[in-house]
Amino acid sequence: MKKILVATEKPFAKEAIAAIRKVVEDAGYTLALLEKYTSKTELCNSIADADALIIRSDIVDKEVVEAAKNLKIVVRAGAGYDNIDLEACTKHGIVAMNTPGQNSNAVAELAFGMMLYMARGGFDGGTGTELRGKTLGIHGYGNVGRYIGKIALGFGMKTYAFRRTSMDEIIKAEGIIPLSKAEDIYKNCQYVTLHIPANEQTKKSINYDLLSLMPKGATLVNTARKEIIDEESLLKMFAERPDFKYLSDIEPACKAEIIEKYSKRYFFTPKKMGAQTLEANNNAGIAAAQQIIDFFEKGDVRFKVN
Ligand code: 3PG
């Protein structure tokens, strides 16, 4: 009987695990769980006899891949797969997949939660501002970006989007103004929200050249990855622009300096929270389990990323 291991340092909700278990056991497979583990050794030991692996932001590097003697498939229950060594997987004949779109609404809602929190001064009893009538730039119009667009229009924000591979007609039809250069997003928007993956092209790409273009009242929202931010530029913006604020679902490496010097101008979640909803756990977890079963039963590799 094939064994599917769910290895999550940050576990899925209990209800989502029950739903994943049902999908797995109904198909005649067994489910193993490794939750809240604290060392790579624990992961390497648990994965030794697994045929398939479901992870979240858990690191699957060369060492983990080499410890996984039976592994045929790893599915990242989520969007970003920068935590998987794709080359090592390919070398060992392991298929890597993600579950695009399954947790996107949860991430988009968190971005607005953080924007509202900051616009209202952290709910400190003082006078805040509103989102209506403000300009919002969506940097990366993929699954999350599209949900952001829908919510932004509901808030009455003037909303722009930039996407590396143009989809201008679709963006326009969705009520959003497409822009052809990333720079234009920063020039036009008081709020910029990031929805791009972390890869060799994007790491440290959000830099001073872009951020300094932002108009007064600049707020950068990052529910993507901390690696895409050039932190030297971030600190420079904090130092030069008293209006600049940074909201992030991932604590930056330079958080100590920001916390010490720039009170009321930042918000960081203690742990990545974007996909931490019951709905997103269910959607991504069930999709991952189903993709594994479809891979073994039908050879379906639709969501393969390597
Ligand atoms: C993703 O890439 O899907 C999100 O960043 C969610 O990550 P998580 O599953 O670790 O919460």
What does this protein structure show overall?
This protein is of the alpha/beta class. It has two domains: 3-102 and 276-298, 3-Layer(aba) Sandwich (Rossmann fold); 104-268, Rossmann fold (3-Layer(aba) Sandwich), CATH 3.40.50.720. The protein has twelve helices and twelve strands. It has helices at residues 14-26, 40-47, 62-67, 86-91, 104-119, 143-155, 168-173, 182-188, 208-211, 231-240, 255-261, 278-298; strands at 3-8, 30-35, 52-55, 73-76, 95-98, 135-139, 158-162, 177-179, 191-194, 219-222, 245-248, 266-268. Helix 1 runs parallel beside helix 12 (278-298) and helix 5 crosses helix 6 (143-155). It is elongated, with a radius of gyration of 20 Å. The mean pLDDT is 97. 3-phosphoglyceric acid is lined by residues 10, 56-57, 78-80, 103, 272, 274-275. Residues 10, 56-57, 78-80, 103, 272, 274-275 line the site of 3-phosphoglyceric acid (3PG).
Question: How is this fold's topology laid out?
Answer:
Elements: E1 3-8, H1 14-26, E2 30-35, H2 40-47, E3 52-55, H3 62-67, E4 73-76, H4 86-91, E5 95-98, H5 104-119, E6 135-139, H6 143-155, E7 158-162, H7 168-173, E8 177-179, H8 182-188, E9 191-194, H9 208-211, E10 219-222, H10 231-240, E11 245-248, H11 255-261, E12 266-268, H12 278-298
Parallel strand pairs: 1-2, 1-3, 3-4, 4-5, 6-7, 6-9, 7-8, 9-10, 10-11, 11-12
3-phosphoglyceric acid is lined by residues 10, 56-57, 78-80, 103, 272, 274-275.
